[in-house]
């Protein structure tokens, strides 16, 4: 029974020494001296702010992309025990002792290091030789720009890692499928492809380019499967559903999960709240939630409310009035109604309070039981402090002569009757009998007499002159001019009015609101709003000293100075390996020209290379050249400030193309032994030059050793490079 113990248990394993060696070298090149410099390097000043906010659980919005990459950087801070207390206000600022620099930079460095073995495995899966795969990995290893970008709290190395992981996973899946569909290994690589794509998109929206490329390749492969008569209809349907699940459904679910974790972590109110809706702000701890917690949910006749404009750009503002009137005549000679001013005021103020009045009754308090206001009801809005009614009429607005003036009506005993009836229209209603709800309802006020809509016109940028205290203009806009968010309002603060006397009501308006009904947004509602803000929020693009155009990247006519030592000549630059970048451009040009030549010849029924070699050439090129194109060409259409690091994902694919072209030239164009020997010698010389350039620029890649003025001048290989040289 125990006979099996008579023989030793033997475990055998295949170890790819190339892969192990490349991984070790990648780790050394990216992790060596990772804490140096112990100062803020370039965009660390930007991402560091978000890390601090994660540590403090304070909500923020970053319009540069989804939150997954930020969360990974914050994970490094969490593992290092960072408390978030550091002022990220200046590039070059020395880190205090509470900032775990090594831990914060660790994940980007690991991602950058793992790109080296990933490059090797991708070419192996493309059926290229191990020699070609080794060459690709070494080119990634000795690429100065990729090293620099992976050694700091930046996202590009993480993005490239997930992109390459997605490509490798799909190639593994495709190769496994040839002999064992629906096996455990098959499912693993297919699911990992979708997960890696989702992570890439979750780091930066640039990951969407590679995701779309892989979906297109997967679609093409499935199209070929449809033509295979050996595959049954049931099997085809299973393949389709499996791909749909792994490449579409799961990535979407993961993408949602990134936001779920993000919102779960950031539950406290912060400086970015103001661009979100009142409902979103009220769901955060502190801030608006402290004011609105427990307010009545349903707006009733007699309710005291503040009305916030939903647009919230360029600043949030509330419907406001004060005792001052419009001037009798404006600067341009036009006359006004001389009625009480109504504006949109970007600060909380007692003059933002309004009372919802039933036109058929005189009381300004909530009855018992309260009578809720519903969609389509006619109301009057009474200004809480001055008790004058919100009014509009056929008088030109002060800054917008084609729109109607909005005022609070003063009876001057002239032939200008009050026109103060407004119809409440709930835009996000579920039925025509919906009740007007605090925070949740988005409403439009339509003037009964003129059909004009209450609109915060000043949100377009113009503000009233000194007589209007530079507040934002409110007008009556004709409905025929179309819908705009500046026409939409929501109740932010709300209480049930109890005081009929004006003096008592003024005291009531100054007091805080407290009731017993809370309002919570669902996750999907918060996700939808946050996603929309990320996609539509526009930060002012200013010209940056190191910004560049997409055309500058190919020839590397630009660089970025990341860090300069305060006293010595030590500095760090984002600069690529000139030999590698030039070779990559030649590879793209060579592949394109050679492919066109082959296509023309094949059209003439002339086959220069075997069919297997042609299929390898096409498949490898579609992936590498396609990856370069989809990650580079879209930047020509983007209206944003661009930097050299935006090119790095495209560069990674371009580098993978070099060994593809070199192996093809060696196997199919160098036909004699002499030519092969000469070609091999040229490749060795070329690789030596790649390593030479890597070593030459290492001081400005790693920031040490410090170089003299003469040595720095010697590194300015192009006049357009901005190598920093201190004045003597």
Automatic annotation (TrEMBL):
SMART domains: MIR (SM00472). GO terms for molecular function: dolichyl-phosphate-mannose-protein mannosyltransferase activity. Residues 296-359, 370-427 form the MIR domain. It catalyses: a di-trans,poly-cis-dolichyl beta-D-mannosyl phosphate + L-threonyl-[protein] = 3-O-(alpha-D-mannosyl)-L-threonyl-[protein] + a di-trans,poly-cis-dolichyl phosphate + H(+); a di-trans,poly-cis-dolichyl beta-D-mannosyl phosphate + L-seryl-[protein] = 3-O-(alpha-D-mannosyl)-L-seryl-[protein] + a di-trans,poly-cis-dolichyl phosphate + H(+). The chain crosses the membrane at residues 9-32, 68-88, 100-120, 154-174, 186-219, 240-267, 578-600, 612-630, 642-662, 674-694. It is an enzyme of class 2 (transferase). Pfam families: MIR, PMT, PMT_4TMC. It is a multi-pass membrane protein. It comes from the Eukaryota. One of its GO terms (cellular component) is endoplasmic reticulum membrane. Keywords: Endoplasmic reticulum, Glycosyltransferase, Membrane, Repeat, Transferase, Transmembrane, Transmembrane helix. Pathway: Protein modification; protein glycosylation. It is found in: Endoplasmic reticulum membrane. The keyword Lyase does not apply. InterPro entries: ArnT-like_N (IPR003342), MIR_dom_sf (IPR036300), MIR_motif (IPR016093), PMT-like (IPR027005), PMT_4TMC (IPR032421). Its EC number is 2.4.1.109. Belongs to the glycosyltransferase 39 family. PANTHER family: DOLICHYL-PHOSPHATE-MANNOSE--PROTEIN MANNOSYLTRANSFERASE, PROTEIN O-MANNOSYL-TRANSFERASE 1. This is Protein O-mannosyl-transferase 1. It comes from Bucorvus abyssinicus (Northern ground-hornbill). The lineage of its organism: Eukaryota, Metazoa, Chordata, Craniata, Vertebrata. The gene is Pomt1.
